[in-house]
Amino acid sequence: MTRKRFLEILPGFITWNVILFLFWGGYFIPVATAYFILAFDIFWVYKGLTVTITVLMTHFKMLAAEHLDWLREAKGFLDWKRVKHVIIILIANEPAEVYRKTLEALAKQSMPLNQLAVVMATEGRYPNGEKECEKLRAELGSKFGEYLITMHPANIVGEIKGKSSNEAWAAREAKRILIDEKGWDIQYMTVTSNDADARLHPQYFACLTFKFLDDPHRYERFWQPVVMFYNNIWRLPAATRVVNTFATIWVMGLQSRKDRLVSFSCYSASFRLILEVGYWDTDVIPEDYRIFFKAFFKLEGRVEAEPIFLPSFQDAAESTTTWKTFVNDYKQKQRWAWGVSDIPTFIEMFINNPKGSWINKMVRLLRVIEDHLLWPINWFVITAGATISTLVNPKFARTSVGFMLPRISSVILSITLLFLVILFVIDSKRKPPRPKDVAFWRAWLIPFEFALMPVVGFFFGALPGLDAHTRLMLGRYIEYRVTEKVG
User: pTM of the prediction?
Assistant: First the structure.
């Protein structure tokens, strides 16, 4: 067995052993298991407190950032007009209306549009995308400094179909055309990974210009907007609306944690950095964390993700029926959880790149491992842990510890209800206004939808996470699946 294969087995092995411990531990060592559950509950309250504080910090920083004239700030640098932004819009089989809206959002940028180069990165296996992008050239493409259409060939040997391989192809084409042929200065270029549905705040590129010029370490930086799954939030069934609301809240919390912040979904970097690390890998599914840690370890731990407190509004997983929406959301969360497959690679990178701050690199690595390991475990310990112990051991349930375990656990976790109220208020202020075609009474029901969390937390959190860990452990690797979009 190779070291990499051993490391692939390890996350699933740990996950299953912790979950099964609740059963056999509750039977053989019930008191120790009870203390483990209570300790985990206290840890969860701590996590809830830190997330609530950081979400509040992010909210107020966003309010400040949204009201600042970032173009005026950028103009404080004499060379601000030299900065060029390459935006790679990743297109697969989405309806054309989805990326039309993305282009319309880009056309509203406060930054002069002649400093933006839009790259419509289409896939050879979906030829209709190239045709639709050509139709948009005259209508919207002509507004930008450059409007390029690339087509990533299908079935390249050694590649895995997906966002990462398409992005690498598009970036290489952009370099060939913009830098090699047209002579753009790579020292003044950024590149943005933009999903087909990601609509950036009108001041995003003005803010990015300022931050790029203001940072002496600009060639060792990623810049991360606040990803918010709100484009279609009012169209979703209650269950997946709750799931994607909490996904947005979690992302908001990370935005104010520079020690945890990593490029996610929609992000920017200096073009020079992407070229230096050899572009995105073409044989992986999760590309955002991979490109960050690839750069992080190659540049000896000096790479950081800088927050931009402006939103990138994106679609939550959706489909044409409620059931298909559930399936689509599950598959998306499974793909996110498949990021656990990066852990063996990150450990290999850590071992093979000994230079730089050992502590900094170790802390970064451990936090990624923590997030992925807790993903499928949280629900079982918090929601079901106390109940499982008393069910598998009725004799223990009649002891003082067994009798008090569910009650103490409930009291500890009830503290998180206060956090939930605060997070709900922040969410209501950030969520787009109710569309006219959505009944008024539905808005009043939203607070009660949070009662679905124990159920949806299992089906759209723990289960897809456990699914991903188990597949990796068994060597049953998943294929990239484009999240369905509804125009």
Answer: 0.94
